């Protein structure tokens, strides 16, 4: 963007200028306060504007009274309505003044000035403003996906109302805030100071207060039955286009050590499309249930889209190297067979829809998550994996604040080469966050004391949550629950469906010479999953932000041989509970 000055305009801080093709549009850097503008805030902002209109009249002029033959006192007539700028009329109507018989005053956007963003690239700011000022933006083939509602506002010089100007300002302010560059954004409106401007032309001025570029944080966290200590650092606006570089180091009781470096940048300066590139390494202790340790190093690149209300999509490509080793002396034979190295190269698609009023303890709304993963683009593993999760809550008509909640999770993994799946890719089930009154990862296939994981699972839970008597505002709640689910392995070499054939192979399925009597994958999987483990109980629940703590008393109602049951009391700490 070229820097220009407007003839006859006020002097002020340097500003970036956006040209809409008809007249210069000033664009400096400013931000918008995260809370939406209210009527009172708009009124205050307009009253504080530096450029104001002046009324004309016969001030101080003596008027001769012919009938009386003398001179009257000086009369100062009220300013004419024609002397008022349309912006003043709009504010007057907004403040509850007399209604204009001609309707809402017409306004036309002349310029947008963003002040306080000198460290942001002018080209980046121009791209942020493009959907609001470029008349060709709505015609682009990717306009709806990339800009969404932003192209629905009136273009500069087109007639609109003060409500339209206010809605545009709120949207633009929210966009600037979403880049995490500014801690405060305020807005004001001014009549256009250009000599050729009419009483309908106004300027939008956004004043931004930037955030510190460097952010450091150390913390200790408890969640998902694990305690961790971490150090995090973040550098904002790395190259002047709202890029972010984050790094973290974590040490914990289960995750022995983890290091992560993440670079994030808006794609095409869009607040709804972000690119992410990360490198990570992690060392996880599995000795409690699998007598081993898992080390993972990987690279990941992703695109995240949040342009739909309540929805989020992510498409990612990941390459990782997993090492399962450090077996304990008493590790089982089955666990030792799963040890070794594996390399995975996979594409992953994630879709999330969340309409809950509270993501941690909702009283209404629904949450849906679906993940599809395809591995086999390289490396030693080849499979297709599906996972899904559903949660819904509803407040019951009761004086005790009763909330009924239901949740379900499911997943299936099918290798593409007929080989058994790798331990690092398998599912695990059991524990206070996934299936209460069972030990951590204790359901499904086992060899001695070691959990081997599974290729298919499902779980479901229903809860009834109530406020503490006479203390509805407390974060401590009462709840009763019923949980059920099961985990199993899949014979990856078996055909998907049983096909009768006299030949030595199954037509249209995975070749399996001499396996004409082998049970199909679907029949075997459904047969095993149709024998769920079930538990029930009551307990106390404490919710503080994303952290949730439960102390439950219950019993397993149904358990399969080998399941690690937990009778009596069970304590759980985590973020995501069934």
From TrEMBL:
It comes from the Eukaryota. InterPro entries: Bac_surfAg_D15, D15-like. The keyword Iron does not apply. It is a multi-pass membrane protein. It is found in: Mitochondrion outer membrane. Residues 237-577 form the Bacterial surface antigen (D15) domain. Gene3D superfamilies: membrane protein fhac: a member of the omp85/tpsb transporter family. Keywords: Membrane, Transmembrane, Transmembrane beta strand. Residues 1-74 are annotated as: Disordered. GO terms for biological process: protein insertion into mitochondrial outer membrane. Pfam families: Omp85. One of its GO terms (cellular component) is mitochondrial outer membrane. Residues 40-57 have a biased composition (Polar residues). Its main location: mitochondrion. Belongs to the SAM50/omp85 family. This is Bacterial surface antigen (D15) domain-containing protein. It comes from Tilletiaria anomala (strain ATCC 24038 / CBS 436.72 / UBC 951).
């Amino acid at each position: 963007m070229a820097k220009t000055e407007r003839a006859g305009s006020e002097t002020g801080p340097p500003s970036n200028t956006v040209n809409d093709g008809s007249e210069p549009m000033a664009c400096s850097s400013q931000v918008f306060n995260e809370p939406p503008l209210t009527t009172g805030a708009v009124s205050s902002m307009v009253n504080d504007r530096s450029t104001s209109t002046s009324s004309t009249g016969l001030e101080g002029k003596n008027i001769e009274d012919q009938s009386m033959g003398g001179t009257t006192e000086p009369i100062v007539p009220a300013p004419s309505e024609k002397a008022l700028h349309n912006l003043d009329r709009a504010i007057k109507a907004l403040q509850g003044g007399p209604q204009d018989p001609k309707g809402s005053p017409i306004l036309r956007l002349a310029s947008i000035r963003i002040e306080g963003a000198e460290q942001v690239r002018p080209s980046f700011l121009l791209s942020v403003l493009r959907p609001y000022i470029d008349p060709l933006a709505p015609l682009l083939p990717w306009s709806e996906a990339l800009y969404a509602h932003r192209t629905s506002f009136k273009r500069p010089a087109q007639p609109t109302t003060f409500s339209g100007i206010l809605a545009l300002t709120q949207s633009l302010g929210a966009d600037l805030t979403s880049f995490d560059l500014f801690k405060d954004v305020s807005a004001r409106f001014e009549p256009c100071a250009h000599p050729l401007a009419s009483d309908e032309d106004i300027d939008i001025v956004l004043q931004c207060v930037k955030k510190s570029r460097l952010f450091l944080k150390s913390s200790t966290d408890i969640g998902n039955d694990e305690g961790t200590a971490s150090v995090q650092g973040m550098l904002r606006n790395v190259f002047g286009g709202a890029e972010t570089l984050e790094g973290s180091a974590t040490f914990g009781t289960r995750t022995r050590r983890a290091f992560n470096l993440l670079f994030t940048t808006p794609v095409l300066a869009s607040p709804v499309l972000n690119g992410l590139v990360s490198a990570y390494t992690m060392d996880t202790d599995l000795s409690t249930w699998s007598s081993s340790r898992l080390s993972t190093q990987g690279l990941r690149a992703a695109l995240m889209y949040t342009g739909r209300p309540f929805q989020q999509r992510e498409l990612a490509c990941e390459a990782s190297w997993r090492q399962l080793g450090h077996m304990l002396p008493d590790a089982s034979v089955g666990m030792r067979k799963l040890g070794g190295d594996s390399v995975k190269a996979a594409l992953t698609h994630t879709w999330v829809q969340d309409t809950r009023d509270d993501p941690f303890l909702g009283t209404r709304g629904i949450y849906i998550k679906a993940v599809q993963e395809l591995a086999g683009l390289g490396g030693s593993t080849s499979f297709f994996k599906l996972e899904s999760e559903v949660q819904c809550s509803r407040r019951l008509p009761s004086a005790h604040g009763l909330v009924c909640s239901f949740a379900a999770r499911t997943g299936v993994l099918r290798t593409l080469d007929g080989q058994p799946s790798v331990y690092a890719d398998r599912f695990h089930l059991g524990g206070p966050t996934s299936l209460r009154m069972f030990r951590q990862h204790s359901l499904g296939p086992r060899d001695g004391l070691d959990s081997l994981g599974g290729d298919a699972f499902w779980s479901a839970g229903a809860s009834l949550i109530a406020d503490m008597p006479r203390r509805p505002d407390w974060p401590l709640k009462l709840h009763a629950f019923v949980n059920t689910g099961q985990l199993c392995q899949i014979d990856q070499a078996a055909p998907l469906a049983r096909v009768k054939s006299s030949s030595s192979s199954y037509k249209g399925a995975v070749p399996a010479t001499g396996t004409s009597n082998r049970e199909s994958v679907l029949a075997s999987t459904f047969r095993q999953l149709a024998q769920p483990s079930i538990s029930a109980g009551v307990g106390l629940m404490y919710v503080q932000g994303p952290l949730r703590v439960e102390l439950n008393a219950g019993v397993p109602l149904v358990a399969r041989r080998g399941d690690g049951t937990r009778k009596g009391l069970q304590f759980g700490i985590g973020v995501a509970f069934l």
